[in-house]
Amino acid sequence: MSRRQRTYGVHLVLSQVFQQLNDLTPAQDLFKRIDAHPLTVGGASKDRDARCGFGAGKLAKGYKLHEIRSGKGHIDAWGLTAMADNEKQAAVGLIQQLPQRAGYLVGDSQYDANALYDQAAGRGYQLVAPAQRKHRAFGASPP
Question: Which CATH architecture has domain 2-128?
Fold first, then answer.
């Protein structure tokens, strides 16, 4: 699927589908949510681009749909990667797609990275994500 997505025709169709969905919802919203959703394929699939990774708390084979969505359902940015790809790396491309506005971008602890906070601030958004648990107190030096 991701190999085919690189073609202009498939990308155009997907963009038109998302545009049709966006026409049904208002675009302006102060809060936006960034997240990834697993799109699993069967274990016997011959798809060379589908790789194993964590999706919905378990190991699965397939893809991840990454998106930034407003509280009212408007899709502001999206991307498709293999299941094994890191959510932080995909978030860089998503944040670049955001229009320059002021607001809040809310994500889970996967998006707790200084580079993402800085990039979101550069687009006018404040990224809000819970800290990743490291089993040590703030300010403690690594062993």
Answer: 2-Layer Sandwich (3.30)
